[in-house]
Design a protein that fits this description.
heterodimer, A: alpha+beta, five-stranded mixed β-sheet, four-stranded mixed β-sheet, B: mainly alpha, Rna Polymerase Sigma Factor, Chain: A
Chain lengths: 355, 170
């Protein structure tokens, strides 16, 4: 608990004020007793994977429904593959750190030479309609497959965009990633501890992995519509995060239900780019209208709208702006879906610098 | 039974962790989302979750980080459920301050807490974890599950947002 002495007065005051406010908070004396009452029962969080027949049938039905949705939405995945190749090589490159360095995957035969890959990695963001999937492209050095590298990146590297977060808390390794005719099989190490937010959104956490694996497969020219089989230490995982059934391979959920409806691809967060600046991404928005706002030091300096190629399903949008050198924030959003009622419009933002 | 053995190890650990961290975590949670009563619930949830996962924690040192992440996440969920109403919760942290507290600077603290409450969640989290929690950038990144660079940017945006309110009382 350090209190750096070299803080400017402003920060020192903030520190003091918070401590003063906090010290007024006196928790009730029975906290431990309350916790004890709840931990005394045998935990039910990880029930044995013995599914009743009814449960199994319902799950099978769910998988089929998912499959139908996938067929409907399969076109949406195509941009993932094309986008990646379009993505400037310098874009969301992650500075390799200790944590991001892919430990050599066990089970690889003769290690192929390391290559540089740009892989799609899905994260989550609080979109205005709860958490939804969002995507970044990360450039990685790897001697493994694109699928392995993408999932590994998702598990080990936090998102670049400050508005994004992840439902995988770390401590999990990819042990193998295999693409076969009927499924993509990802074998993970047993998570040391479940991500607390994943416990609240178990299905979305699984979809984060499914979207990442399938997008990476598509990107590598493999079948991105395959379901994803998740195993833990080589054994069927059964259930993850106390609620997501992964006993059968899992397909992508309907993107309109799980993805943030506006997704910026370029510029990448923190990128330095020349003017004119190209803004591109994908959106599934009413009347294909994507609103934008350009901010500088928090002030809106310009705004307008652009259109996606089609409405109401994920389609590409792109626009260009001539900008003076400086640091900007772009916010791209859907128009208010309900004229002020219901959920907030979804948006995606990037901070970037024009050189 | 294995269950029993790990169960009692977990019980002991929870008791120790409670003694060392409960009050601070409740205060942290109060700063993060405003309500003291909710803060206690969020922190108790975090301890219960930790107890259940005790067996799977690789090292005891990870326990505090786990509690912190759970609390940050729990407060975020509370804020999300409250939606727009969260901007103006009725209950101020610490309820009505006494005259003495105001005299020793309670009013100034209130002004900051009030201003904090108007910030976007991530900015508030970054500031509270840094200035109340006393955490390093990487600990904050871990608790918020964002990169260190993102912690920096949230903190500096949050500071900018508070500057106006702070100018009023400094």
């Amino acid at each position: 608990m350090s209190t750096p002495e070299n803080w400017p007065p402003e920060e020192q005051q903030l520190h003091d004020a918070m401590h003063r406010a906090a010290e007024r908070v006196q928790p009730a004396p029975d906290g431990l007793a309350r916790i004890r009452r709840r931990t005394a029962v045998v935990p039910m969080w990880r029930r044995p994977v013995v599914l009743g027949l009814a449960g199994a049938t319902a799950l099978a039905a769910a998988v089929i429904v998912g499959g139908v949705i996938l067929l409907d939405g399969s076109d949406d995945d195509t941009p993932v593959a094309t986008e990646t190749s379009r993505s400037p090589s310098g874009s969301p490159s992650e500075t390799p750190t200790e944590t991001s360095a892919p430990s050599s995957p066990p089970g690889t035969e003769t290690a192929p030479p390391a290559q540089t890959l740009t892989v799609p990695v899905y994260y989550v963001a609080d979109s205005g309609d709860g958490l939804r999937l969002v995507r970044e492209f990360h450039t990685v050095e790897t001697n493994s497959s694109s699928v392995w590298a993408a999932v590994d990146e998702m598990l080990k590297v936090l998102p670049t965009d400050p508005d994004y977060t992840t439902l995988w808390w770390g401590g999990v390794n990819v042990q193998s990633a295999e693409v076969t005719a009927d499924a993509i099989t990802i074998d993970l190490s047993d998570p040391a501890e479940d991500d607390p937010s994943a416990l609240e959104h178990p299905d979305l956490a699984v979809q984060q992995l499914v979207y990442t694996a399938t997008a990476a497969a598509a990107d590598a020219g493999q079948d991105g519509s395959l379901p994803v089989r998740i195993t833990i230490d080589g054994a069927p995982a059964g259930e993850l995060f106390g609620g997501a059934d992964v006993s059968e391979p899992v397909v992508r959920a309907d993107p309109l239900e799980v993805r943030q409806l506006v997704q910026l691809n370029d510029p990448a967060e923190g990128a330095t780019v020349p003017s004119p600046v190209t803004f591109s991404g994908e959106a599934a928005v009413f009347e294909a209208n994507v609103l934008w706002e350009l901010r500088r030091d928090g002030e809106v300096v310009d705004s307008g709208f652009t259109t996606a190629e089609t409405c109401c399903e994920f389609a590409r949008f792109e626009m260009e702006l001539d900008l003076e050198p400086g640091t900007y924030e772009i916010v791209m959003s859907e128009s208010d879906p309900s004229s002020g009622e219901g959920r907030r419009p979804m948006s995606d933002s990037r901070t970037f610098t024009v050189e | 039974m294995v269950q029993d053995r790990t169960g009692s190890a977990a019980d002991e650990a929870i008791t120790d962790l409670y003694a060392a961290h409960y009050v601070r975590l409740v205060r942290l949670a109060t700063l993060l989302q405003g309500s003291e009563a909710v803060a206690e619930e969020v922190v108790q949830d975090a301890f219960v979750a930790l107890h259940r996962r005790w067996r799977r924690l690789r090292e005891p040192a990870a326990a505090v980080a786990y509690l912190r992440t759970s609390v940050v996440h729990g407060c975020r969920s509370v804020q999300r459920r409250r939606g727009v109403a969260a901007r103006h919760p009725e209950e101020a942290p610490g309820h009505a301050p006494s005259a003495e507290q105001v005299a020793v600077g309670g009013a100034a603290a209130d002004a900051v807490v009030e201003a904090l409450r108007g910030l976007p969640d991530r900015q508030r989290e970054a500031l509270v974890l840094r200035y109340y929690g006393g955490l390093s950038e990487s600990e904050i990144a871990n608790a918020m599950k964002i990169s260190s660079g993102a912690v920096k940017s949230h903190a500096s945006r949050g500071l900018a947002g508070l500057r106006e309110a702070m100018a009023d009382w400094s």
